[in-house]
């Protein structure tokens, strides 16, 4: 597997919502290249007919009784929020102003 | 130093139950010890002095009232900062959660409290449990009590160092790729990863959900078993929790301590006895295996051909799951928010928050995971790693048709100097070479001290079949009886 370019790192950082610095792009390009080359060893294993394992415990459809249980109060749920208003998490604008207006 | 800090959990619980000492006295002794040595060790991120003393007083009051106390009542315990504690700071070793006080307790912490143990505080860790040295903590490294210029392992270096420094007789860790066992090995303490699903993940800050397993750390095998019994068992709040009772690990540890392993067949993993480990580590391991043979165990070699691919498979699977799990740290519901000046969009604020809040190793793993899951690379990376996971599981299954448990060194090398592996992230990953297969398979594994190499502790790993946690405790206790526990130098 090929090394990873600065541009690819910038793309991954965007997808990952990381506002990385120019300096980090250089560092990460080198480091991620080494890591990806090493983990690419999994490709050496002949496994075409092997089913994948996503989980070691084969439990499916785990349900509980549909009964009311105590939960967090709005105050508790909002206690760690960076910003809250009227019992809601307050976030920066999501839509452009002209769209919102 | 007060003698109380040198005692095992069993001994402390006995003294508290008989009234020879009080839980408050025991707690004060450990808080004093933390005050004396933690500036040199830095095992703790937060010491909950008031909470600990209140919990200890409650135990003493219950005893005075004639209530029956559990087997660990009055025993102090340190908890890895990956588990939520209601009203007590929980950072996961990250700046992104600095100052966060969770509104609820994790199941593990709830069970610790119900058992009458006394939580001393929260221990240091690699950020989000990603690392093998505790150097990736955003709050500075923990130091190994055996040599404070060396790492205490990771990610649960704080939980292991607290034991070796006699700051706590018990601690809780979490093991995703070795984060309980590797710190146990390099600090000369005992660390057990239960069967995946045998301990609840409710309130455990998620790193890699198909692998994360909380578990017990202690200075003796019996103490670890008692702690395992207290925290283990089905939890309806964790959908991957296995709905069966915990095997009787305490009885198994007591049985092992009798020193008879007649009829027990152990397999040395051939793939882990080659050139991967330091000669001193291999020598201590071989001597310990010989000691087990003298107790009656039959020792054979077993090949697990796909174990060599466990490390690369893990470093695709765990980052992939982490890239998804850590999406919740978006500066909206808890923790840090950066750059919200009224002009920036939500996406910009999220990106600035995550950039400022996450350290370099977390960023690397998020990006590796994002890469491995992207269309075009998914089949070659994540998909292939999941297939390799199947083959590793098959290696275990076929090995356990031949032997009762597998054995290997816990880590390829003893505690390394602080700063010696941070420049090359992949060199750090190699610390998990022998511990990762059990995580991918899901079965239990334990590290128990087996001697020294160049004056530093070496860990001996025992891996057992899924839900046969008792089996590893039996072998571990037998080994402990044969080679003894390790006493770190005075700090």
Automatic annotation (TrEMBL), chain A:
Comp. bias regions, Basic and acidic residues: 85-101
Keywords per UniProt: ATP-binding, Ligase, Nucleotide-binding, Protein biosynthesis, Transferase
Pfam family, one: GatC
Key word Ligase present: yes
Gene3D superfamilies per record: Glu-tRNAGln amidotransferase C subunit, N-terminal domain
GO biological process: glutaminyl-tRNAGln biosynthesis via transamidation; regulation of translational fidelity; translation
Subunit note: Heterotrimer of A, B and C subunits.
NCBIfam families attached to this UniProt entry: gatC
PANTHER family: GLUTAMYL-TRNA(GLN) AMIDOTRANSFERASE SUBUNIT C, MITOCHONDRIAL
Protein name: Aspartyl/glutamyl-tRNA(Asn/Gln) amidotransferase subunit C
Protein species of origin: Micromonospora marina
TrEMBL record, chain B:
Protein keywords: ATP-binding, Ligase, Nucleotide-binding, Protein biosynthesis, Transferase
Enzyme Commission code(s) on record: 6.3.5.7
Active site: 80 (charge relay system), 155 (charge relay system), 179 (acyl-ester intermediate)
GO CC annotations, alphabetized: glutamyl-tRNA(Gln) amidotransferase complex
Gene Ontology MF terms: ATP binding; glutaminyl-tRNA synthase (glutamine-hydrolyzing) activity; transferase activity
Reaction it catalyzes: L-glutamyl-tRNA(Gln) + L-glutamine + ATP + H2O = L-glutaminyl-tRNA(Gln) + L-glutamate + ADP + phosphate + H(+)
Protein name: Glutamyl-tRNA(Gln) amidotransferase subunit A
GO BP annotations, alphabetical order: translation
Domain of life assignment: Bacteria
Species assigned in the record: Micromonospora marina
Subunit structure comment from the entry: Heterotrimer of A, B and C subunits.
Domain Amidase positions: 25-471
InterPro entries with a match to the protein in the record: Amidase, Amidase_CS, Amidase_dom, AS_sf, GatA
Class of the enzyme per the UniProt entry, highest EC level: ligase
Family in the record: Belongs to the amidase family. GatA subfamily.
Known function: Allows the formation of correctly charged Gln-tRNA(Gln) through the transamidation of misacylated Glu-tRNA(Gln) in organisms which lack glutaminyl-tRNA synthetase. The reaction takes place in the presence of glutamine and ATP through an activated gamma-phospho-Glu-tRNA(Gln).
NCBIfam families per the UniProt record, alphabetical: gatA
Gene: gatA
